[in-house]
Structures are given as C-alpha cells and as structure tokens.
Design goal:
Layout (H helix, E strand, L loop, with lengths): L6 E5 L8 H17 L2 E4 L5 H12 L4 E6 L14 E5 L2 H10 L3 E4 L4 H15 L7 E4 L6 H12 L6 H4 L1 E4 L2 H19 L1
Parallel strand pairs: 1-2, 1-5, 2-3, 3-4, 5-6, 6-7
C-alpha cells in the first residue's frame, strides 16, 4: 500500500522566531514531505517559517498548495511560484480551503494566527466534524504551555478528557513523519 498523494496542512509562523531550531525544523519538514511524495498545503506566504517550509519542499521537488487571503498578499509576500496558488477573500475561507485540501494537520511554532488555526481544527475534531490527525511539532518544548492549557481545560471541567487525545505532540520531524505514516495508513485501511 502506498501513501503517495497525501496532503499535509502546515500551520506555522510568518516569522522565524528567535531559536534557530524553529527554522531548521521547518526546513526539515518541507524536505521530508517532498521526499515522502506528500503535498504541502500551507498559507502561501514567503516569509518566516511558512516561506521556509515551502522553499524546502520545492527544493526537494515537492508539490505545494498555497492559500492566502487577499489582504495578506503584500504582508506575507504571497509566493506565486507554488504548484497551486489560491487567493481567498478572508482568513476564515483560507483556513477552510486549507483544511478541505489536506489529510492531516501539523502545527509548527507560531503566534496568534497559528493558535487560531490550531483551535479551529481542534474544535472541529472535538465536535466530530472530522477525524484527521492533528500534530504539534514541539520544537524545543515550544508547545508545552499549550499542552498544559489543554489539560487545564479538562481539569477544570470545560472539556472531556478525549480532547487531549485529538492532538499528538512530537519532538522533531523524523518522529512526526513516522507517526504520520502510521496514522495515514490506519485511516486509509479503515476507509477501505
């Protein structure tokens, strides 16, 4: 059974962040997705971690599917040399198009926008609207406070314990790719 032609949605920062490991992991992820034959679905920017993961995927011969709202074309330097480049009217439409064109979601370090994207797909999963795997690439412990917050929601009675199970924390790209292969294989088998 082959896992070719899978599409992985990557939410991440439009900045590089202060730690070199963030950029290194974005580069590694772009290369790994291309080498696996999986299409990168992302926010179509050519800045920060977004630009890094896309350039790395392109540099390794990968397919890239970018989605950007019209109001961010200049700010995020819309990367028009992608395999597919879609301009939406607003942020909500951007997230919807990215989600609908992916088989799994990976969240790299980022800011408020990345959290917005993460919580939307997590909420949809919680409500039973999808069963796509959701990953946090926990580079140098970046997402540890978010993990603690999710467990705080549960401990304080605002979410079922199952919420924590909808998110997989991985420390680096090799671990992510191994887990993604297993998750996508399981989903494909259950769909057959």
């Amino acid at each position: 059974m082959t896992l070719q032609n899978q599409s992985i949605c990557v939410f991440c920062g439009s900045r590089d962040g202060d730690r070199p490991a963030y950029a290194a992991q974005a580069d590694a992820l772009g290369h790994a997705l291309a080498e696996a034959g999986w299409r990168l679905v992302y926010g179509a920017g050519d800045v920060g971690l977004m630009g890094r993961v896309a350039r790395a995927a392109q540099g390794s011969g990968g397919q890239t599917f970018g989605v950007i709202p019209v109001h961010l074309l200049d700010r995020e330097v819309g990367k028009r040399d992608l395999s597919a480049f879609i301009v939406t009217e607003n942020m909500h439409e951007r997230k919807k198009v990215m989600y609908m064109n992916s088989d799994a979601i990976v969240v790299l370090p980022g800011g408020a926008g990345s959290l917005d994207e993460f919580f939307e797909v997590l909420t949809w999963r919680q409500l039973g609207l999808h069963a796509k795997p959701i990953y946090l690439l926990n580079t140098e412990g970046f997402w540890n406070p978010l993990s603690a917050l999710i467990h705080h929601f549960i401990d304080e009675g605002f979410a079922e314990p199952s919420l924590a199970g909808y998110v997989r924390m991985v420390s680096d790209v090799p671990a992510l790719m191994e887990d993604l292969r297993d998750a996508l294989s399981s989903r494909r088998l259950s769909a057959e």
